[in-house]
Amino acid sequence: MKNDFTEEEKKGFYKAIYSRRDVRSHFTSKPIEDDILSKILHAAHHAPSVGFSQPWNFILIKNIETKKKIKESFNEEKNRSSQLIEDPKKSKYLSFKLEGILESPVNLCVTYDPTKFGPFVIGRSSIPEAGLYSVCCAIQNLWLSARTEGIGLGWVSILSNEILKKSLELPDHVIPVAYLCLGYVEDFAEKPDLESAGWLPRLGLKDVTYFEKWNDRENENWKGIQNRIKEDMDYA
Ligand SMILES: Cc1cc2nc3c(=O)[nH]c(=O)nc-3n(C[C@H](O)[C@H](O)[C@H](O)COP(=O)(O)O)c2cc1C
User: Fold this and answer.
1) 35, 23, 21, 11: which is closest to 182 by C-alpha?
2) What is the pLDDT of residue 79?
3) What is the pLDDT of residues 121-152, one digit of tens each?
4) In a shared domain, residues 206 and 101
5) Atom 14, ligand 1: which residue's CA is nearest?
6) What is the Å distance from ligand 1's center to 156 Cα?
7) Within its chain, how far is the Cα of 3 from the centroid?
8) Protein residue closest via CA to atom 10 of ligand 1
9) 155 and 229 within one domain
10) What is the maximum span of the chain, computed from C-alpha positions, in angstroms?
11) CA–centroid distance, residue 222 to ligand 1 (Å)
């Protein structure tokens, strides 16, 4: 295939990236159509994976009893994690809406199966985590595809994996990687909720980019890009 993205298509691609949000509220009552859900899952399934191992599985959930069990686990874990911080941070943390399990029409658990096509997987023998990274690539594809279809997605990691495994009857060797809440939304926030709430700021690209070695921020051979990223360009 040629390098054939038109300018318009490139714009669409970057629009999906910059306008993607983690969504936990304001889901509408509109159900997700099967062909759209299928499209989103296909996008996830076309992610890169170490040794082409495709180590993911997707478990679609709408059963209210299952959702309630997961929500209960979320409540427990949120309270438990709040013990790690003191006020005023603690109250602020507790006031955040950090899941949309019951409000979203579709919940989706993405899992990692290290035994798929194993035990020898090309590229995974030195870095076993590469399997897990592959699942995260699938999740990102899914997230961007959902955004393109006007569907909000929220990742809930404040959960007990044990309860998740039990509720979804996962085999012992299968690892739950993400619990996601999906549904149509009216609009997507301009900024991450945690940024708007003053919890954390977005870092400058220049603060996270080094040249040739860890922590080297200035390098004669990289002047051009160094100057560009200092400006925090707006490509949205
Ligand atoms: C691995 C992972 C776990 C996350 N877990 C949660 C979560 O439990 N609850 C929540 O509200 N957001 C969760 N998020 C969403 C982040 O808070 C969000 O991505 C971040 O604040 C940036 O906002 P944005 O996604 O809208 O750009 C998670 C995101 C990732 C990548």
Assistant:
1) 23
2) 97
3) 999 999 999 999 999 999 999 999 999 999 99
4) no
5) 155
6) 7
7) 28
8) 98
9) no
10) 60
11) 32
pLDDT in tens, 181-226: 999 998 999 999 999 999 999 999 999 999 999 999 999 999 999 9
Q: Is residue 7 part of a domain?
A: no
Residues in the chain: 236
Residue 125 near ligand 1, beta carbon < 6 Å: no
Identify whether residues 43 and 85 lie together within a single domain: yes
Q: Is the pTM of this model over 0.90?
A: yes
The closest-lying atom of ligand 1 relative to the alpha carbon of residue 21 is 26
Same domain assignment for residues 115 and 148: yes
The C-alpha atoms of residue 23 and residue 152 are separated, in whole angstroms, by 5
Closest atom of ligand 1 relative to the 74 alpha carbon: 8
Distance 22 CA to ligand 1 centre (A): 6
CA distance 192 to 13: 19
Closest ligand 1 atom to the C-alpha of 200? Answer: 21
Count structural domains, the chain.
2
Mean pLDDT of 57-84: 98
Q: What DSSP assignment string belongs to 171-208?
A: -TT-EEEEEEEEEEBS---SS-HHHHTTS-PPPPHHHH
Residue 126 covered by a domain? yes
> What b/e sequence results for 85-107 when a residue is b if at least 16 CB atoms lie within 10 Å of its CB, and e otherwise?
eeeeeeeebeeeebbbbebbbbb
Share of the chain above pLDDT 70, in %: 99
